Amino acid sequence: MRAFPNPTQIPKANTPKEGSMREPDGSDRSDRSDGSGKSEQSHQSRQPRKRLRPSGGYRTSASFQTATLIYDATYWFCEKFLDPRSRLVDQMVQAARSGRQNIAEASRSAAASSQTELRLLNVARASLEELLLDFEDFLRHRHLPQWSRDSREARAVREVPLRFRENRADQSDQSDLTDLTDQQRWALYAPWLEHENPAVRANAIICLIHQANYLLDQQIVAAEKQFIEAGGYSEQLAAARLAFRQRRERLDEADPSDPTPCIPHCPRCGKAMVLRTAKSGPTVGRQFWGCSDYPRCKGHVQL
Q1: Using one digit for the tens of pLDDT, what is the confidence trace for 176-190?
Q2: Domain boundaries, the chain
């Protein structure tokens, strides 16, 4: 059995995770696209420009962390219970790896392409579905039982996050499984994922795959909604360029001592507005200013 840290030794929510590289502002340097991981001191001379669309941060997402559990568990399952020369081993390990890696790649691609982000999330979802079928086949071909969704065993695996929150010594602590290291998270599932019975391991991994698939479905729906409401990267880039040109023209024409910003503020909540294009209705295809806090605020100003 593999040795892991005591799961009760849980870091606080605001404590940096072991092995991660946190900046003073809380950002994760290991998620940077340049992969440099340099300290903030080396960047004091220049301030990074804020990107039009945020990306990264996948290491703290529940979907990526669950996919990491599945990948590790699948690797060790195949190592213990399947013939290493079997083609099935390579297929299962690669499917588990694809589920994890494509979540990370989708997170990074979000900065430049909503379509690529959605495509990679769907690839991750499809890879985990393929892995699910492989584990179901393993149980069926060996006449081993598969847990039903409402079985006591399946519920025990699903309720690990709930029990973790209930068993915290400090009930005011708001940390959850996403605040743990990979080793601490594994330790919570170790009674099933390190079990000597292959049926127990396979069924536990099946439960985790269902959880990851649910999380990915929610992630895909949210990405689709964002694309529909805010547009893709090219559309947002064009809107930002147009707003910049309008602001510059306004400043050129106005009194330099009293420049008036071109981008209006929302008449309802006062937040800055963004340029949008009507998708339906009598003004379809025409641009208008919409509140940046949409859909919570639906304030708008016609051009």
Answers
A1: 888 999 999 999 999
A2: 29-36+52-230, 233-302
Query: Could you write out the DSSP letters of every residue in 170-228?
Result: -TT----GGGS-HHHHHHHHHHHHT-SSHHHHHHHHHHHHHHHHHHHHHHHHHHHHHHH
Interstrand relation of 287-291 and 273-277 (parallel, antiparallel or unpaired): antiparallel
CA distance 174 to 69: 22
Q: Are 208 and 69 in contact (CB under 8 A)?
A: yes
Q: Which of 18, 14, 1 is nearest to 183 (CA)?
A: 18
Q: Determine contact, residues 60/178, Cβ cutoff 8 Å.
A: yes
pLDDT for res 25? 41
Query: What pLDDT was estimated at residue 281?
Result: 74
Residues 6+ apart with CB under 8 A from 121: 102, 103, 106, 216, 219, 220, 223
Residues 6+ apart with CB under 8 A from 229: 294, 295
By the 8 A CB rule, do 161 and 177 touch? yes
Q: What 3-state class would DSSP assign to 270?
A: coil
Please enumerate in sequence order all residues whose Cβ is within 8 A of that of 104, keeping only pairs 6 or more positions apart, or say none: 58, 64
Low-confidence ranges of the chain (pLDDT < 70): 1-56, 169, 171-173, 230-244, 246-247, 249-262
Rounded to 10 deg, the angle between the 87-109 and 114-141 helix axes is 160
